[in-house]
């Protein structure tokens, strides 16, 4: 890094001296800031002289290098970067201080800016070509990513496409130009993106969304263009934009004030994405912790239209992640990675890596030649203390058990009441949204829902709470069912007042009278809720052995799919 700095510095100094000489004839013509930006975009600005102590600078046009224009705008590092990114040569001048002294100050500023833009991996980092850096170490491939089996499967064809786009386009296949990885922090989104580039053997360009959010209109957009321009030079590449929500956040509904800068940046991204050829072999990958906050414009076909969840690892994946990161770390025999995987519920891959790393540091501090269980135990505190509270909290054994019964309740009720539904996943790993676990059952494609299906769905929602009550007793029920209860209530309201399915209430809907609360209707809904809940408890208690079986398996494996459950219940 230092080696590059010296020549760059000298060039800058030369430029500065040149500028010092130039400064004698200060331009008289004026140019507005917007037309200046326009000129930069069109590549017409050849040179800019910045005055540190004034709110103006001088711009010199390509076809008219003699006549300068004064443009009103304060100078900032972002602005300078915007110019550099657009190949405008920049020099500095201080209006009052001249000569060697001025040049000195200017040199310091220049040094600062170069240091700033080439900073070693700071948050403000510019475009990084990870492949170049990584080739010095070790190439990142899919094998570097442990667990995340589904996500890895979902990117296989993208790798195939980057390697040989025509194989896909000749069949008329349109590959996604953009992938969106979403999930909690530290789950390996960046790692997987690098692995795609590594497997396809193409350059990797990464930036973070927060680098694009700038005070100055046009800077973010120009950084996007420059990022894509660098990638496009290679024909094939992976472009990775972390924290994409920083550019593509949904607008607040009632904010009339438009955010010009953000809109321009987002538009530049969308334009760039539609700009390159379908058969080129460039793939853009965005990552976010919050899928729900993203602007829909980003998710449309031809943009980030393949969305891949990267969740927290289950016990098996945790073991594999631990094994991967333990490879280069000598461990004593008392370290049992199986057990460690079991006791790290809710840990992300990054936290597991961190755990082993901290343990290694502790062992090294103690001048030991290997890591013992004691070191890992100590490291727990460091890792947990540094963990974001909202994502991971230490989950007690009792909480795990409650969650397991709760989720098993949902799963079993689905099997019993809507066997035609396909259960994709039951898990006790916390999801992004903070629920204890989730239970996804996908209904068979159908236009309508029958009365039987709606009632079954309500009971399935109640089955989590019912299982908790059945096993732990009415006084031990938890807040974990709040979301279920809300959903069930809204289904009951639809059942009675929208679909007219309750025989007693009949076909009249009070929804035509907008603001009139109907106390009688509410009472009836409440009665329906209570009786459906009772039936759900009854159903589970009649099938308590099946409930126990699913729970035990969930506690052991943490995540089950539909086939696992069928096997457990002897349905296959
Ligand atoms: N599945 C995994 N397999 C192996 N290592 C992992 C895995 N997940 C995370 N890690 C480790 O954690 C580090 C950080 O992961 P990474 O930066 O890819 O997470 P991220 O999901 O991009 O996080 P963020 O959302 O905070 O940007 C990786 O470099 C790696 O050491
Ligand atoms: Zn639930």
From TrEMBL:
Keywords: ATP-binding, Cell membrane, Hydrolase, Membrane, Metal-binding, Metalloprotease, Nucleotide-binding, Protease, Transmembrane, Transmembrane helix, Zinc. Its cofactor is Zn(2+). It is a multi-pass membrane protein. InterPro entries: AAA+_ATPase, AAA_lid_3, ATPase_AAA_core, ATPase_AAA_CS, FtsH, P-loop_NTPase, Pept_M41_FtsH_extracell, Peptidase_M41. One of its GO terms (cellular component) is plasma membrane. GO terms for molecular function: ATP binding; ATP hydrolysis activity; ATP-dependent peptidase activity; metalloendopeptidase activity; zinc ion binding. The active site is at residue 407. This is ATP-dependent zinc metalloprotease FtsH. It comes from Herbinix hemicellulosilytica.
């Amino acid at each position: 890094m230092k080696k590059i700095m010296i020549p760059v510095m000298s060039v800058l100094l030369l430029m500065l001296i040149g500028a010092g000489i130039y400064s004698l004839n200060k331009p008289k013509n004026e140019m507005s800031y917007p037309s200046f930006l326009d000129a930069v975009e069109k590549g017409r600005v050849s040179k800019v002289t910045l005055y540190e102590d004034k709110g103006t600078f001088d711009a010199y046009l390509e076809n008219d290098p003699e006549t300068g224009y004064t443009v009103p705008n304060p100078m900032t590092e972002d602005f300078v970067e915007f110019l550099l990114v657009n190949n405008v040569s920049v020099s500095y001048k201080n209006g009052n201080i001249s000569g060697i002294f001025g040049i000195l100050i200017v040199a310091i500023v220049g040094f600062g800016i170069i240091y700033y833009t080439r900073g070693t991996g700071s948050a403000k980092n510019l475009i990084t070509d990870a492949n170049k850096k990584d080739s010095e170490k070790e190439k990142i491939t899919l094998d570097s990513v442990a667990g995340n089996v589904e996500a890895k499967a979902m990117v296989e064809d993208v790798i195939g496409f980057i390697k040989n786009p025509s194989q896909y386009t000749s069949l008329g296949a349109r590959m996604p130009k953009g992938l969106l990885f979403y999930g909690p922090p530290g789950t390996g989104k960046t790692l997987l993106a690098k692995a795609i580039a590594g497997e396809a053997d193409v350059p990797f360009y990464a930036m973070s969304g927060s680098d694009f959010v700038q005070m100055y209109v046009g800077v973010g957009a120009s950084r996007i263009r420059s990022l894509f321009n660098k990638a496009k030079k290679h024909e094939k590449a992976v472009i990775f934009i972390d924290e994409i929500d920083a550019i593509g956040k949904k607008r607040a509904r009632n904010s009339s004030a438009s955010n010009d800068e953000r809109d321009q940046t987002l538009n530049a991204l969308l334009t760039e994405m539609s700009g390159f050829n379908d058969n080129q072999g460039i793939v853009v990958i965005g990552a976010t912790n919050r899928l729900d906050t993203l602007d829909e414009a980003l998710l449309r076909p031809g943009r980030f239209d393949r969305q891949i969840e990267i969740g927290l690892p289950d016990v098996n994946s945790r073991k594999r992640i631990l094994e991967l990161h333990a490879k280069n770390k000598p461990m004593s025999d008392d370290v049992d990675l199986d057990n460690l995987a079991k006791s790290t519920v809710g840990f992300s891959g990054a936290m597991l890596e961190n755990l082993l790393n901290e343990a290694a540091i502790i062992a090294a501090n103690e001048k030991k030649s290997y890591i013992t269980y004691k070191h890992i135990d100590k490291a727990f505190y460091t890792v947990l203390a540094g963990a974001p509270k909202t994502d991971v909290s230490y989950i007690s054994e009792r909480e795990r058990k409650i969650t397991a019964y709760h989720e098993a309740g949902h799963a079993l009720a689905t099997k019993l009441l809507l066997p035609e539904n396909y259960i994709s996943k039951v898990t006790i790993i916390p999801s992004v949204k903070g629920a204890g676990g989730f239970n996804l059952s996908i209904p068979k494609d159908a236009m309508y829902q029958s009365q039987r299906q709606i009632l079954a769905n309500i009971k399935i929602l109640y089955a989590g709470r019912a299982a908790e009550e059945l096993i732990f007793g009415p006084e031990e029920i938890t807040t974990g069912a709040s979301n279920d209860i809300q959903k069930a209530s809204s289904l009951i309201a639809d059942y009675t007042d929208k679909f007219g399915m309750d025989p007693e209430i009949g076909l009249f809907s009070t929804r035509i009278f907008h603001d009139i609360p109907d106390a009688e209707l509410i009472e009836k809904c409440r009665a329906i809720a209570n009786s459906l809940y009772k039936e759900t408890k009854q159903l589970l208690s009649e099938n308590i052995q099946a409930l126990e079986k699913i729970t035990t398996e969930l506690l052991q494996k943490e995540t089950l799919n539909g086939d696992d459950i069928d096997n457990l219940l002897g349905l296959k």
